[in-house]
């Protein structure tokens, strides 16, 4: 996985983790949400397409399968799996 992809996933994971710690509208949530949005926007401006989802119980971000996503990105994995989202592209 490249560094940008990992930073985006860490930011998304942190955003989902922190939403359980703070009430809606808390400045910490707003800051992390903006950071995540900015990272994703910059990433998508550099690419013609992007993909993330769960394929055969393996989390995939673009071309990078993450076999340990349930440990390293547990909140993001739970959100996608829990909402029965197969993929976003």
Question: Overview of this structure, please?
Answer:
There is one protein chain. The chain is an alpha+beta fold and 89 residues long. It has one domain. 55% of the residues lie in helices and 15% in strands. It has 4 helices and 4 strands. The protein has helices spanning 3-18, 27-46, 69-72, 74-82, and strands at residues 52-55, 58-61, 64-66, 87-88. It has a 4-stranded antiparallel sheet with strand order 3-2-1-4, covered by helices on one side. Helix 1 packs antiparallel against helix 2 (27-46) and helix 1 (3-18) packs across helix 4 (74-82). The radius of gyration is 13 Å and the shape is globular. The two termini are 18 Å apart.
The structure class reads: alpha+beta
The helix content is: 55-70%
**End-to-end span in angstroms?**
18 Å
User: Can you count the beta strands?
Assistant: 4
Task: Give the overall pLDDT as a whole number.
Answer: 80
CA radius of gyration is: 13 Å
- Low confidence ranges: none
Beta-strand percentage? 5-15%
Which word captures the global form?
globular
Major sheet, described briefly?
4 strands, antiparallel
> What is the count of distinct domains?
1
Instruction: Name the helix and strand elements from N-terminus to C-terminus, one letter apiece.
Output: HHEEEHHE
Give structural attributes.
single chain, 89 residues, alpha+beta, 4-stranded antiparallel beta sheet
Question: Which SSEs are present, and which pair or pack?
Answer:
Elements (H helix, E strand, L loop, with lengths): L2 H16 L8 H20 L5 E4 L2 E4 L2 E3 L2 H4 L1 H9 L4 E2 L1
Antiparallel strand pairs: 1-2, 1-4, 2-3
Helix pairs in contact: 1-2, 1-4
């Amino acid at each position: 996985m490249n560094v940008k992809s990992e930073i985006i996933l860490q930011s998304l994971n942190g955003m989902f983790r922190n939403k359980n710690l703070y009430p809606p509208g808390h400045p910490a949530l707003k800051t992390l949400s903006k950071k995540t949005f900015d990272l994703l926007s910059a990433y998508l401006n550099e690419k013609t397409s992007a993909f993330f989802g769960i394929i055969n119980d393996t989390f995939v971000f673009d071309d990078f399968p993450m076999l340990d996503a349930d440990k390293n990105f547990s909140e993001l994995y739970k959100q996608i799996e829990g909402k029965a989202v197969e993929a976003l592209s």
